[in-house]
């Protein structure tokens, strides 16, 4: 039988507790989404509460449309705050109440905004009509690029808007708090999210960065949030941007770009493709490493298996992976590889944003790229819970992901394959050496077909679109991270311990030792 495409787990894993590297960086504690008005809705607040609880450090959240004109009514790939309008005489009118509702929701949960500065208010757009789009899955994707994507007709008014916004945030939340935020200029300006030229984006960045720093010199500003640097044109944009900032001494506190994979349907099943995503990451790292900014923090402000969170599996069958443990194992395997790439390039990877949140009021398990559906967590969310339970310093672990501190050691392992096909479980083992204890408590957490998996429970219920209260409670419990079995107290012999692990296809395990 042929080896499944993309299988990554070796037959055995060896981990030496004594070989500890640099502190574990919670680069995974970053999330984002298109629709900002979902933030303060019922399921949005519930999910944000869960995300804030899963990380030992503050979770950062990025969303589009923070300056888009509109009444705050959410829709797929749309949102608005009405922060800037003009009165009948053409005078600016500033209204922060919707954007405050968004940031308040984060701050109340101990979260931090990665504040994306965009998009263009209707009254400032050089091409305002049409402005509000009504996109839905199956409609041409480029129909979303309307008046909000154009440069400002008046850069001075744009600068004043940004300066007032930042000053307002400092007044509302305090200097100490806002100093921990990140401000990013626009989104994917090298494609149709920006209808201006490259040079016009550089002008927008320069103008915006200056306004942010005038308002609050301690603010951290960055960009350019370009699409995948594996494309020649995107790579050129990123290099040109860094060169421009260096030549003009423009403020730049961090660098951002995006990385996406490309699944497809092959012979009736989904086949994932991490190669474009990992090429984006490695090319982006290489560009930064060769620039004058090689030591700056890097944020991959969208880091996903593909590019359209709001494209469900009904219109895009290649996205059927999203409900299942395939999304979980892909995320575990790809994030571990991204951490290894950062180590290899010796760059400062600060964060990788999973562009996945929730879609309020949609059908149950409709194949959106989200972390929860109708308030019930999907299997993929439990991978982030696993990452959040890891502490201490990184330990080399081959195709596993490991970390340890004085009193614990955690190992994440997975049985990921590119093809969404049934297969035999993987029989492996984890051998741990130089453990500083004679006995250890071992807790085994698992994501598979029968653990931490509300989707499989929902299907067994008959896939109800209107679950009863009792069914909802059952689904809610099934969506949480579960243990494979009861914790065990194991004896360590001469500092060594071997733990056998059987991993079903697309399963993820976290083995946590306490001593």
From TrEMBL:
GO biological process, one term: carbohydrate metabolic process
InterPro entries: GH, GH39_cat, Glyco_hydro_39, Glycosyl_Hydrolase_39
Active site: 188
Glycosyl hydrolases family 39 N-terminal catalytic domain segment(s): 13-478
GO molecular function, one term: hydrolase activity, hydrolyzing O-glycosyl compounds
Similarity comment: Belongs to the glycosyl hydrolase 39 family.
Ubl conjugation in keyword set: no
Pfam families associated with the record: Glyco_hydro_39 (PF01229)
Keywords: Glycosidase, Hydrolase
Protein name in UniProt: Beta-xylosidase
């Amino acid at each position: 039988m042929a080896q499944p495409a993309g299988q990554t787990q070796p037959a055995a894993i060896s981990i030496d507790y004594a070989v500890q590297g640099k502190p574990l960086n919670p680069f995974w504690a970053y999330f984002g989404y298109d629709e900002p008005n979902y933030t303060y809705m019922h399921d949005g607040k519930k999910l944000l509460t869960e995300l804030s609880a899963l990380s030992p450090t503050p979770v950062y959240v990025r969303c589009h449309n923070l300056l888009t004109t509109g009444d705050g009514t959410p829709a797929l790939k749309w949102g608005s705050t009405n922060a800037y309008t003009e009165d009948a005489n053409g005078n600016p009118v500033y209204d922060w109440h919707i954007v405050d509702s968004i940031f308040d929701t984060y701050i109340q949960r101990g979260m931090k905004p990665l504040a994306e500065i965009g998009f263009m208010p209707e009254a400032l757009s050089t091409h305002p009509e049409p402005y509000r789009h009504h996109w839905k899955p199956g409609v041409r994707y480029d129909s979303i690029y309307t008046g909000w994507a154009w440069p400002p007709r008046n850069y001075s008014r744009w600068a004043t808007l940004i300066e007032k916004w930042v000053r307002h945030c400092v007044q509302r939340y305090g200097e100490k708090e806002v100093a921990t935020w990140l401000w990013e200029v626009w989104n994917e300006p090298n494609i149709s999210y920006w209808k201006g030229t490259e040079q016009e984006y550089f002008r927008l960045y320069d103008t915006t960065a200056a306004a942010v720093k005038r308002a609050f010199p301690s603010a951290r500003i960055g960009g350019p949030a370009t699409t995948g640097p594996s494309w020649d044109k995107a790579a050129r944009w990123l290099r040109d941007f860094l060169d421009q900032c260096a030549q003009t001494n423009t403020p730049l506190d961090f660098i951002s770009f995006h990385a996406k994979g490309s699944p497809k349907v092959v012979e009736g099943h989904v086949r994932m493709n991490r190669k474009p995503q990992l090429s984006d990451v490695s090319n982006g790292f290489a560009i930064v490493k060769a620039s004058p900014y090689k030591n700056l923090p890097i944020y991959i402000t969208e880091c996903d298996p593909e590019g359209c969170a709001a494209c469900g599996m009904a219109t895009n069958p290649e996205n059927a992976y999203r409900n299942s443990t395939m999304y979980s194992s892909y995320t575990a395997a790809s994030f571990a590889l991204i951490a290894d790439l950062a180590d290899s390039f010796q760059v400062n990877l600060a964060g990788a944003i999973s562009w996945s949140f929730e879609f309020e009021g949609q059908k149950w398990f409709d194949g959106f790229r989200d972390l929860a559906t109708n308030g019930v967590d999907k299997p993929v969310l439990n991978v982030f819970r696993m990452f959040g339970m890891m502490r201490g310093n990184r330990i080399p672990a081959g195709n596993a992901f490991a970390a340890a501190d004085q009193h614990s050691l955690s190992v994440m392992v997975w049985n990921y394959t590119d093809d969404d096909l049934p297969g035999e479980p993987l029989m492996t083992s984890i051998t741990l050496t130089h453990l500083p204890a004679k006995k250890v408590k071992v807790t085994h957490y698992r994501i598979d077909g029968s653990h931490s998996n509300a989707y499989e429970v929902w299907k067994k219920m008959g896939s109800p679109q209107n679950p009863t209260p009792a069914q909802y409670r059952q689904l809610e419990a099934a969506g949480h991270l579960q243990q494979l079995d009861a914790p065990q107290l194991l004896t360590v012999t001469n500092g060594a311990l071997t733990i056998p692990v059987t991993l079903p296809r697309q399963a993820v395990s976290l083995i946590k030792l306490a001593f």
